[in-house]
């Protein structure tokens, strides 16, 4: 059979598997090298309060171009790093990089424009998470009150007792806390109300279809009500169109983040972006 058809389905399957396995081997060694040499960059995306028309925060997002693999998306290499233990050194390198840029460029040196850092669940689950974070911030001479931590709903809801303690410690240090990708996990409402949180970020998937799928508009509406009743502010992520901003405004959403206001950009460009924003704001 294999000979008649040239090559069997099975050998194609194994070829694919070989290629995939090879990629993972290269990915691991390339990632290891990138962490050691800190050869990745951080981009920053503005968050806009649509009630005050002010930029109220910046989210730090990693970008990595490997010599051998080209640009690899964080949606691929972050979960990969979480599986093979590289996420801890990678996370620490990311935090150091962001702190360094914060000092060097006086990024958001104002407490009213915190820089948010995405925290991996594996990193957060470490017993030493809070103390290691504290150590990096001290070493880098950075004040946590200028920063925010983005934890996904799944991360926050796993192991509630430990989460509660860690969040309290983080709040005491001065960090603000966002629940990222809200709506994709399973939140316990009682935990949501007891944890010391600041923001709920509604997952992109609800926002992308908010104009076309009525049920997603209702979900966003409900999340806004829920968040406000818990005294949290709501951030909509992945907003690309002005019509989406307008609808979010009528639903009472507080903060918008997305291409509609600005793509993630290099640290060097942020000051200029903020300057232009403020000039235009005066004119509006
Ligand atoms: P996330 O934290 O939920 O980040 C939001 C993602 O949406 C980012 O993708 C961002 O570039 C993208 N985005 C922003 N505005 C728009 C928009 O208007 N339209 C669309 N279609 N997308 C938009 P990115 O940078 O590829 O990151 C993907 C995920 O990878 C992040 O999701 C986060 O979970 C993770 N990640 C990124 N950077 C880091 C990091 O420094 N540390 C950790 N632990 N995870 C990170
Ligand atoms: Mg995020
Ligand atoms: Mg998100
Ligand atoms: Mg995400």
UniProtKB/TrEMBL annotation:
Stretches assigned to coiled coil: none
Residues annotated as domain EAL: 24-278
Name of the molecule in the record: EAL domain-containing protein
Organism this protein belongs to: Planococcus salinus
Upper taxonomic lineage: Bacteria, Bacillati, Bacillota, Bacilli, Bacillales
């Amino acid at each position: 059979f294999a000979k008649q058809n040239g090559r069997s389905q099975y050998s194609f399957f194994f070829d694919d598997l070989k290629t995939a396995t090879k990629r993972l081997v290269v990915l691991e060694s390339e990632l290891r090298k990138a962490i050691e040499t800190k050869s990745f960059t951080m981009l920053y995306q503005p968050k806009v309060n649509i009630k005050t028309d002010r930029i109220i925060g910046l989210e730090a997002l990693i970008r990595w171009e490997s010599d051998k693999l080209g640009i690899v998306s964080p949606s691929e290499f972050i979960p990969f790093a979480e599986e093979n233990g590289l996420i801890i050194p990678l996370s620490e390198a990311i935090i150091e990089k962001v702190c360094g840029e914060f000092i060097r460029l006086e990024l958001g040196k104002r407490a009213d424009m915190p820089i948010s850092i995405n925290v991996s669940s594996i990193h957060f689950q470490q017993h030493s998470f809070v103390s290691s974070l504290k150590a990096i911030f001290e070493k880098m001479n950075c004040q946590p009150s200028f920063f925010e931590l983005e934890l996904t709903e799944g991360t926050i809801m796993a192991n509630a007792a430990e989460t509660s303690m860690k969040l309290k410690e983080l709040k005491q240090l001065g960090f603000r806390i966002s629940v990222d990708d809200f709506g994709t996990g399973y939140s316990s409402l009682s935990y949501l109300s007891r944890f010391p949180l600041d923001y709920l970020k509604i997952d992109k998937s609800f926002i992308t279809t908010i104009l076309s799928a009525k049920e997603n508009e209702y979900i966003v509406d409900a999340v806004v009500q829920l968040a406000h009743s818990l005294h949290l502010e709501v951030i909509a992520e992945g907003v690309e169109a002005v019509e989406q901003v307008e609808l979010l405004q009528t639903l009472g959403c507080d903060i918008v983040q997305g291409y509609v206001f600005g793509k993630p950009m290099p640290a060097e460009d942020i000051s200029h972006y903020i300057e232009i924003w403020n000039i235009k704001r005066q004119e509006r």
